[in-house]
Amino acid sequence: MQWNQFLLFMMGQCCFSDCQLYEYHYIEEDKNWTEAQRYCREKHTDLATVSNMTDMKRLLNISAGNMGEAWIGLYDQTAGKRKWYWSLPGVEFNESETNWASGEALDTGSENCGFIGKNLTWGDYYCDLKLYFLCYDERNASQELYFIKEMKTWLEAQSYCRQNHTDLASGLNQVQLKQLNNAFQSVRMNTFFGPFRDTWRWSDGSSFSFRHWNLQFNFKEFNSGQSVCHDCTS
């Protein structure tokens, strides 16, 4: 099986592992991803796993002052089956509790991001096309859902929601029918929300859904670099 590797962009959920807290170590040695993985497994636990934005900020803090980019433990299992996740970390995607329209969410094609349709059922869509989107904000109990009337790709929408609210709306508790009706009361049109699917997996076996892609960086020619390892501290 051939694996493509993920690069941590310094510029910018049940698990096989039972680790709850990671201690990160920035390794200032140029290696390819496979070499970095081997080093981290010999000297520490594995390449870094990132489970949420708190981990992401800690990771960036330990790399402060270092130039360039670094490998972490996310790799593309290209021959593997794509799996649906929610954008918001910690929310488990339960296939038996979904509202897909007939014929949607099949494991074919490249429609890997979820939208809510005009009739409030779910569909899958191309992630790089642009739609309005639905954010969730856990800090505001009186208004948890925000219908954003700006055309963005799914990744752009995710970035916007994380910067201005909590995340894209994720999980059945966040997309209840009454709340959706309120959010959609002015405009009813296809709208991105939290579901996405991919073949990316974590090196240590964790199944965290967290992804935080840098939208500007192009690493097609990146073959070697520094890396971040982790040790499990709990």
Helix content: 10-25%
Strand content: 25-35%
Following the backbone from N to C, one meets helices and strands in this order, namely EEHEHEEEEEEHEHEEE
The residue-averaged pLDDT reads 79
Major sheet: size, sense and barrel closure? 7 strands, mixed
Based on CA inertia axes, which overall geometry fits?
A: elongated
Flag low-confidence runs.
1-17
Task: Give the total of beta strands.
Answer: 13
Domain count: 2
What is the CA-atom radius of gyration, in angstroms? 18 Å
Total DSSP helices: 4
The separation of the N and C termini measures 32 Å
* Overall SS class: alpha+beta
Structure characteristics:
single chain, 234 residues, alpha+beta, Mannose-Binding Protein A, Chain A, 2 domains, 4 helices, elongated, disordered N terminus
Task: Outline the fold blueprint.
Elements lengths: L2 E6 L13 E10 L1 H11 L2 E2 L5 H10 L7 E8 L5 E4 L26 E4 L5 E4 L5 E6 L8 E8 L1 H11 L2 E2 L8 H7 L7 E8 L1 E3 L22 E8 L2
Parallel strand pairs: 4-13, 8-11
Antiparallel strand pairs: 1-4, 2-13, 3-13, 4-12, 5-11, 6-7, 6-11, 8-9, 8-10
